[in-house]
Amino acid sequence: MSKYDRLGEFLRKQSVERVPMSFADIERITAATLPASAHKHRPWWSNNPTNSVMTRVWLDAGFESEQVDMTGQRLVFRRVTNPASKLKELSRAVSEGASNHPLHGALKGMTKVAPGVDLTKPADPSWAEPD
């Protein structure tokens, strides 16, 4: 059991789409002090499932972090529609070494290069001329 599991339980009980919280609220709910990096580095609050144990807690609860205000030490947890499938998809992509961005590969196969086209040649012949 993670020390942050209480945050997941709290979020699951919420009936609203957005749950604004302060870092102090999170510490009160979890009865644990957030690491120093959570107070100093915005990426600590990213929705990357490999980021931290706490990230997996809020993702598993069906929420994503947004509107992170490092100065005010506040953020909003927003409910997502299908957290389990998104988490599995992102985890698989990361484990396979692919980008974890949802659009990665979305345009695969959309670009066709005509036979005989040399993509290494400058598009404008004047670019090939020395200055």
How is this fold's topology laid out?
Layout: H1 5-12, E1 18-22, H2 23-30, H3 36-40, H4 53-60, E2 63-69, E3 74-79, H5 83-95
Antiparallel strand pairs: 1-3, 2-3
Helix pairs in contact: 1-4
Compute the separation of the termini in Å.
Answer: 65 Å
- Please report the total strand number as a whole number: 3
* Uncertain residue segments: none
Question: What order do the helices and strands follow?
Answer: HEHHHEEH
Mean pLDDT: 83
| Count of runs of 4 or more consecutive helical residues | 5
Radius of gyration, rounded?
Answer: 21 Å
Structural class: alpha+beta
- What is the approximate shape? elongated
| Biggest sheet details | 3 strands, antiparallel
Strand content is 5-15%
Going across the biggest sheet, name each strand in turn: 1-3-2
How much helical structure, as a percent, in the residues? 25-40%
Description:
With 131 residues, this protein is an alpha+beta fold. The chain has a domain at 5-95. It is built from five helices and three strands. It has a three-stranded antiparallel β-sheet. A hairpin with a 4-residue loop joins strand 2 and strand 3 (74-79).
